[in-house]
Structures are given as structure tokens and as C-alpha cells.
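note to self: dont lose this again. the chain is below, predicted strucutre after it. 333 aa total, dont forget to put it in the shared folder this time
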Amino acid sequence: MLKDLCLINGTSGDESAVRDYIINEIKDHCEYEIDALGSIIAFKKGKNAPAKKVMLCAHMDEVGFIITYITEDGYLKFSPVGGIDPRVVIDRVVEINGIRGVIGSKAVHLLSADERKTAPDFSKLCIDIGVTSKEEAEKYVSLGDFAYFVSDYREFGNGFVKAKSLDDRIGCMLMIELIKTDLEYDTYFCFNVQEEVGLRGAACTSYKVQSDISVILESTTAADLCGVTGGERCCVLGEGPVVSYMDRRTVYDKALYDLAFETAKENGIKIQTKTAVAGGNDAGAVQTSGRGSRVIAVSLPCRYIHSGSSVVKLSDIDETRNLLKVLLPKLYD
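---
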């Protein structure tokens, strides 16, 4: 399922193919509706009605690109959709409307001394689709079309996975798996749109659900690389799910944070925290929507996030499944 989800293209505002896949997976296991922005709000009936309303969230969208201009000689100018470092896109193959192109820049031989010292910004890049005129390019591409990283899903090494859109198709997969199980309590599941451009989908779904407690399933930045030490590693692949205390959008509920670590310890589950206040996720919108919600983020550590070759470890996915199995029942009382 994770491979299928990662290979689907669906950036912010263009999540329909991801949504269709998810609906096909959950339609026989829960009730659901699609809101005006395109998010899925699913309700799974449990064996009991809970004292507290609990909602799980993950976002369907991925980072990508949008075409903004076509030059007279057929090159495509573009802007990022979501937070992408321009250094990770140069010479990458992308797909637009089923055709392939290469993100190009000036050859290193032609760069000035100053240009060699800095990465080019997006205004200096273009997509080459192998045409020679604007008229020819317009047969295949229109302004406002989306472009996506072309990236295979590969398992490699000692239990690692490389793919695009692991952020946050992992969260979507985990929620689909939970919906297909027999749950002890009634639970809401929101598959949100447009997280990468400002948490927009979550602002709407959380306002509709009005949960007491919300669990955000995400991927988060790992920097466990050669030469990076101490707190700068942020989190580490192979050490289990990441439960954050704070990021740039949210201060997380302290009692829920402590409960996650206590529960993991009781059950011999690996768990870690994020040793940097960085990034953000749908919790930033959920926490302050309507009357507000207590929030906890459970994330997969992910190297090279927001690129065409993000990397996670399968054992961390298993540990996250294990944690959710024992943590969720404690949230409903």
C-alpha cells in the first residue's frame, strides 16, 4: 500500500488521485464525506461510544511544482508548491501531464565565481521537455499545470525505503490500516489537503469535527548524517516514532506527550523526541480550530524530506503501528 500511495501524484490543490485511492480502500469500512476543499472526513464506528471525541489526521498532498510561464523557445518556468530547497531539484526528472522533462540550470562551466558559491533560486531554473518553441510546448503543457518528481519506490540496504511523497503517505497508510480494523471506540479520521501550503485542509476538517483530542500522523526531518552530531541530528532513523514537544506552529499537549513516552516504555516500544524546534504540521491548525483541541504528533523520522528521494526505515513504521495500538485506547476516557 505504501508503494502505491507514494507513486500517485498529488500536490497541494491536485490531490484527487490520492483521494480516489484512499476512498477505494476505506469505503467498505467506514462512513465518509468529502468537504469543499477536497479533504476526506471519515467516521469509523467502534464497539463503544467514547467519553472524548478523538480524531486522527494525515495529509494527502506532497510538495511539487506549478508551471508559471513558457518561454519562446519552449522552456517551462515554474514555482515550488510547498517548501522545496532548489538545490535538490537541479537535473531531476519531472512529470507534467504524463510527459517527462528535466529541471535544468546553467552549466557549471559557465557560472561566474560568485554564482558557484550559491545555489540558484527557482527563477533561474527551467524545465526542458524536449521542444524548440512555445507553440510546441503548449501542445502538452498549460500555465497552472503541476509537475512532479519522477521517483521509483525502492527498498534498499538494511530495511530502508526510498521514494517521493513519504511525507505524508505513510500517515495516510497507517490511518487506512486502522480504519480496516475493529476499533474499541468511535473514531474520526481526516485525510487532509493542502498541508504543504499552509495547513489549509486541516483548518476546515478540524472545525467540522471539533475533536477533544487529535493525533497527527506525519513524517519529520531527520538529519542523522555523516558529520552531524548531538541535537543537530534532530531525530534518527531506526529509533522509532518521533513525538514532538514543540515546533514552529505548535506547542504540544504536555500530558499527551508524557503519556506517549510512558506507554512506549511500558510496552518496550522504541520512541524518540525531536531535538530541534523546527517545521510544522497540521497540528498547528487543528489546535486552534473552533473551541480548540489537545494535540499530539506522532511522526516517522525521514531523511531528505521534501525531495524526490526521501528515506525512511521500515522498522520505524512497525514501531509506530505498535505505539498507536496501545496508545489510542488511552485517549478516549
